Amino acid sequence: MGKGDKRTLKGKTFSGSYGNVRPHKAAAKPAVMPKATPTARKAPAKKAAAKKA
Known about the structure:
- This protein has one helix spanning 9-15.
- It is largely without helices or strands and 53 residues long.
């Protein structure tokens, strides 16, 4: 598997041919977007009911 092997990327590059191993246009990967970190919201603290004596 070297420059003479037309089934490998190195061989296709050497011979100047294209195929499944060496496509004309590389498949574009989707852009990785950074995930927004949600801010943790706490529920408002409930006041304890005043005890009657």
